[in-house]
Amino acid sequence: MANLQGAIDSLHQQLSARNAGLNQESRTLTAVLDGMAEGIWVTDAEGTVVRHNDALRGMLQTTGDIIGQRPLALLRNDGLNEAVIRACREGASTRLELTLEGLFPRMLAIRVTPLGKDLPGSAAVFHDVTELRHLEKVRKDFVANVSHELRTPITAIRGYAETLQGGALQDATIAPKMVDIIHRQSERLSELVEDLLELSRLESREVKLKVTDVPLAVAASRASEVVRHKAQGKKITVELNIPPGLVGRGDERGLEQVLLNLLDNAVKYTPEGGRVVVTGALEEARCVVHVRDTGVGIEPRHLARIFERFYRVDKGRSRDMGGTGLGLSIVKHLMSAMGGEVRVESQPNEGSTFTIFLPAAVPSASVAG
Ligand code: ADP
């Protein structure tokens, strides 16, 4: 009797130990699954979900029951449903991609696999590839845009060169005009390439900005010198009203480039006889510079996008004015690299105000007012 009791006790101990072990293993597995960024579900042999992790709930954007549901009820996608059936019945693996519509559409890459020979059922792993696909699209659009932008001047250069070769070179009135056009278009090409290189250096954080104290009135005055000729040609007055004591912390060359791009746009998109005014002030320990124009303005629906590469409100007008569509994108990158930002306010037909914010180099007392 005592022996039997002993055997039962020992069996009980062994079972308890094994139970504790299984418990631990199951908790570890749950913790691992819930810690994963990928969504996972496991189905039984009928294709009904019997287990899932936390990430899956977020991906499917559901608060309802997942366990006990069939794939079709959860995602309404025939391809996924068939993949689960194939995995359960034929032991076949499938990869597929689907888009979840809704307020925030998501793209999911899914791999459905059978569980194994002695384990009936299937498992599916869900990767959220929304961001990846978006980046791929941005890259493709960028390459398409660059090619298109390069093609325009190249076509012109080739066309005029061929016309010259075809005999126009002998024509004393036409030939110089054509050479002029070729020259202008090649300048345009090189501006485009320069802007692209600058943008790519900024985006890859290759440029090391040299942060110093920069008097903003000086930077604005240098930038305005560059556009003076263009402004005079259009009878546009450019007024600079930045207090001499307003000093920002930033890269001198970068700030001049920012102000030049903003001033150049202001002159470019303001009709003859207009006005461009640059003002500056210290606000809450930040330097604020406004570049205001009385130009064509920008409709509200375009405002959020004008800082994107190659985004233009009016492609034809921008090109005619010699724009590359990259200026504001460079401004935005430069400002953010200097710990500042750029904003825009605009009314169509009334004008635009571009405002840059930059860390200040001096205590507020010295330039207050
Ligand atoms: P672009 O070389 O075409 O001027 P930008 O990146 O500098 O490229 O500007 C993007 C677009 O934003 C311009 O094509 C233009 O439509 C609009 N824009 C920029 N500045 C102004 C402004 N001061 N007034 C009106 N529209 C502007």
UniProtKB/TrEMBL annotation:
The entry's keywords: ATP-binding, Kinase, Membrane, Nucleotide-binding, Phosphoprotein, Transferase, Two-component regulatory system
Annotated SMART domains: HATPase_c, HisKA, PAS
Catalytic activity: ATP + protein L-histidine = ADP + protein N-phospho-L-histidine
Histidine kinase domain location: 145-362
Stored PROSITE patterns: HIS_KIN (PS50109)
Superkingdom per UniProt: Bacteria
Enzyme class: transferase
SUPFAM superfamilies the UniProt entry points to: ATPase domain of HSP90 chaperone/DNA topoisomerase II/histidine kinase, Homodimeric domain of signal transducing histidine kinase, PYP-like sensor domain (PAS domain)
Keyword Phosphoprotein part of the UniProt annotation: yes
InterPro entries (UniProt xref): BphY/WalK/GraS-like, HATPase_C_sf, HATPase_dom, His_kinase_dom, HisK_dim/P_dom, HisK_dim/P_sf, PAS, PAS-like_dom_sf
Protein name: histidine kinase
Organism: Archangium lansingense
Lineage: Bacteria, Pseudomonadati, Myxococcota, Myxococcia, Myxococcales
